[in-house]
Amino acid sequence: MATTNFKGQPVRLIGEFIQVGTVAPDFGLVKTDLSTFSLKDLSGKNVVLNIFPSLDTAVCATSVRKFNKLAASLPDTIVLAISKDLPFAHARFCTTEGIEHVIPLSDFRISDFDENYGVCMADGPLAGLLARAVVIIGKDGRVAYTELVPEITQEPDYDKALEVLK
């Protein structure tokens, strides 16, 4: 079982954090129009999963803004912003912030995404929400990069993630 930290306190995650080299499990997450979005829809593309607890926190909002500018400009790359926020919150945030190059997705419905990717917080004040992580899936459908951010209140290492895409 993987762990992260929230304000210096250990937080256990349900399942094992996904590993580089494994085939990325498909998922069905909810778009802002309430339709289902599947990873298989992006076959042949590089896919950045920007996973975070909630858009209503400064660090999570910052990560969506930065990935919108950085990774979204790379060829054959799609950026997914994934949290358990409701699709309505994703739509409001993206409209207000002018986010146009990221696909916001909600894991609010019952799915196995959080356990298959090992990012569901099992305990701590944010139990049930997604841990902060970046997973990059290559065009071949295999995980090419992972970062389970060691402290929920910190941003991911954008430069390291983008190196994999260059």
Task: Explain what you see.
The chain is 21% helix and 28% strand. It is α+β, with helices and mostly antiparallel strands and 166 residues long. The strands form three sheets. It has a five-stranded mixed β-sheet. A three-stranded antiparallel β-sheet has the order 1-2-8, with no helix packed on it. Helix 2 (87-97) links the parallel strand 6 and strand 7 (102-106). The longest helix is centred in the middle third of the chain and has 12 residues, at 58-69. The termini are far apart. Thiol-specific peroxidase that catalyzes the reduction of hydrogen peroxide and organic hydroperoxides to water and alcohols, respectively. Plays a role in cell protection against oxidative stress by detoxifying peroxides.
Helices and strands in order:
Elements: E1 3-6, E2 9-14, E3 28-30, E4 36-38, E5 46-51, H1 58-69, E6 77-83, H2 87-97, E7 102-106, H3 113-116, E8 120-121, E9 133-137, E10 143-148, H4 158-165
Parallel strand pairs: 5-6, 6-7
Antiparallel strand pairs: 1-2, 2-8, 3-4, 5-9, 9-10
